[in-house]
Amino acid sequence: MNASILRVLLGVVGVSVPPAGQGGGVTDVAAARALTAADNGATLRLTGSAGNFTVPKGLPKGFRVEIVQGGAGAATLVAASGVSVNAVNGRQSGGQHALMTLRQVGTDAYIVTGDAVPTN
């Protein structure tokens, strides 16, 4: 399907999609950190040791980010005060090459999908 058509269809159902050219590559991150609005639509690969990615208040509507565990150290999604991060399986990456997606579902409310396990 043409990317422009897909972007329009997703917009009709209220899904925010980053503009073309944003978030298309993988960004290596040596140390976990707080997420920012600039991470919207990005794929972040944790290449260093285990660490927390903090989900702060006030990220833009429709925020979505993918996090990949690039090495032996697990990535964990941690909610800042006033933020809700919910998951069926957990908020920690399940092993090397695991991919988790954090998606906003409401104001300061998020869900985690993908290769996540319960936090140790």
Tell me roughly what share of residues is in helical segments: under 10%
Secondary structure: number of strands = 10
**Order of strands across the biggest sheet?**
1-2-4-8-9-6
Structural class: mainly beta
- What is the CA-based Rg, rounded? 14 Å
Per CATH, the class reads Mainly Beta
Encode the helix/strand succession as letters. Answer: HEEEEEEEEEE
Second-tier CATH architecture: Sandwich
CATH-derived topology: Jelly Rolls
Number of helices: 1
Number of domains: 1
The backbone outline, from C-alpha atoms, is globular
The residue-averaged pLDDT reads 87
Strand content: 35-45%
Ranges with pLDDT <50 over ≥5 residues?
none
Sheet of most strands: 6 strands, mixed
Amino-to-carboxy terminus distance: 41 Å
Descriptive report:
This protein has 120 residues and is mostly beta strands. The protein has one domain: Jelly Rolls (Sandwich), CATH 2.60.120. The protein is built from one helix and ten strands. It has one helix at residues 3-12; strands at residues 26-29, 43-46, 51-55, 64-69, 75-79, 84-87, 92-93, 99-106, 109-114, 116-117. Strands 1-2-4-8-9-6 form a six-stranded mixed beta sheet, with no helix packed on it. A hairpin with a 2-residue loop joins strand 8 and strand 9 (109-114). The chain starts with a helix and ends with a strand. The model has no long low-confidence stretch (mean pLDDT 87).
